[in-house]
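PROTEIN FOLDING TASK:
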Amino acid sequence: MDKINVTQQNIKHKRKLLAQRRRRARLRLLILLLFLGVVVTGVLFAGYALVSLGSRLNQEYQTMYEGYTQRQQARRGTIDPRFDGYTNVLIMGLDEGVDMDGSPEKKADGIVVASFENNSGRLRFIHIPQDTWVNVTGSKEQTKIKYLYAMGGAPMMTRQVNALLGISIHQYIVLDMAVFSELIDAIDGVDIYVEEDMNYDDAEGNISIHLPQGYQHLNGQQAQQYLRYRSDDLDDLGRMQRQQRFCKALYQNLLQFKTLTKLPTIAEIIKQRVETSAEIFDSVYLANTLRHLSSVPPESIILPGAPAADDPSIWVLDDAAAAQRIQELFPAEGPSEEK
């Protein structure tokens, strides 16, 4: 009898332990399910938040990009797909001048199109004489191209050069003489041969130029003097030819390894002091273009023409010769593939 009671008690005890284990197992399962529910809910919430954030960022990006394209359209006009193989940059050097009433105004003293072949990395310079006589785009007015900056700024100059050359300008850069000097000093100057003694003083215009003939290492101020000098037999044409030589010398300087250490300084000057159409959306593209610059010396042309018979201060474009040169620089089959 006692054995039966002990057996029954053992059975009851085992059943009690088993019931306790089952309750603990159910409790652990419940806790696990609650934990999984919290995790899944968190994941879903985080996913929703990321999707919402991504959607907002995409909308903001699209809005920013639409604003960028609208600004670029206003600045440079429509880009012709025929020139997608090139990066054409209009560079304008400003100088202080006066208008017809004697009031101060800025004029484009130097006008150059730097054209990069994207595939080959080759660079070409198209120099536009500042006194080129143009029919102002969008009006019946005629004037020297250098005065357009005062009339409508860089966008007006860009649209005029688009029409004058029959090409698309992708970006523009505007800098005055002081900034130009800073940039030349930032790369430690430029080596060039000064073809004759250059001596010219204009107290009223605050110009003093004194450079001896021979090979010279020009700092920023001296480079400015070299480019502004025009008191010789060739007058403005001679000035254009010096600009050609200077651009080639500057290009060779930029290709030197030592220039790499100057890039942060150059970038800071451009960021703070230079007017440009390039924005953050253009930075990677432009950096890639510059990274593939060719070691081949750049080709350089002066837009063909001649002084006007009744006013030698006006440069009259030779339309046929200019169109021929532009066709040679931008052939219908597109840029070369050669590296």
Residues 47 and 300 are 57 Å apart (CA to CA). The two ends are 107 Å apart (CA to CA). The chain is about 50% helix and 20% strand.
